[in-house]
Design goal:
The chain is built from 5 helices and 5 strands. The protein has helices at 51-54, 62-77, 87-90, 99-111, 136-153; strands at 41-43, 80-84, 115-119, 160-161, 177-178. Strands 1-2-3-4-5 form a 5-stranded mixed β-sheet, with helices on one face.
Length: 180
């Protein structure tokens, strides 16, 4: 049977040499991903330590120091990150979003060359509890307003959005939304 993913795979041989072109033997090699068209990433940390710590200042405690180590290691590995916009977490109380910390995080990563995706704009499992007091027509209207609000607010920082969470939506084949 033919490999249906053959078009996504390739074999390459990488030869590590010294300054004179001689092959390296029994040598540890550190490889670092550079930014390019291939996006390699995972979920981004939505909430970051204070700016003074991000800018190289002393971490106030061990937990923050560990988080900074994880963030540096994350940045060394990936060039693509998903910011979490589950409505129930992003806007726990109607009209009160987590915009400031999310934008701060998004700008930090974008400034480090990370391409970001907002995910998801609509998903029933992490719904905002306050939304359930409305009728379906009002929920739909609020959902569309929310999508417009958040995509517009983050334009230029997060320009790729997943509208629906893939595994639970009958519209899982829909393409990603893009801000223009």
């Amino acid at each position: 049977m033919a490999d249906k993913y053959a078009h996504r795979k390739a074999t390459a041989r990488i030869r590590f040499t010294d300054g004179n072109g001689a092959p390296l033997k029994d040598t540890d090699v550190n490889v670092k991903l550079k930014n390019h068209k291939f996006l390699f990433g995972v979920g981004a940390y939505d909430f970051l330590p204070p700016d003074e710590v991000l800018n190289g200042g002393q971490a106030p405690d061990e937990q923050t120091a560990v988080m900074m180590t994880k963030i540096r290691e994350w940045l060394d590995l990936v060039n693509y990150g998903t910011m979490h916009f589950y409505w129930g977490g992003y806007e726990h109380e109607e009209g009160k979003t987590n915009f400031e910390p999310m934008m701060r995080s998004a700008k930090y990563y974008a400034g480090k060359g990370v391409k970001l995706k907002g995910h998801p704009l609509c998903w029933h499992t992490v719904c905002a509890d306050w939304l359930m007091k409305y009728d379906n027509a009002t929920i739909l209207s609020k959902q569309l307003d929310r999508i417009n609000r958040d995509v517009t607010a983050f334009k230029g920082v997060i320009d790729v959005w997943r509208s629906f969470r893939q595994s639970s939506s009958p519209m899982s084949g829909w393409p990603l939304a893009r801000s223009h």
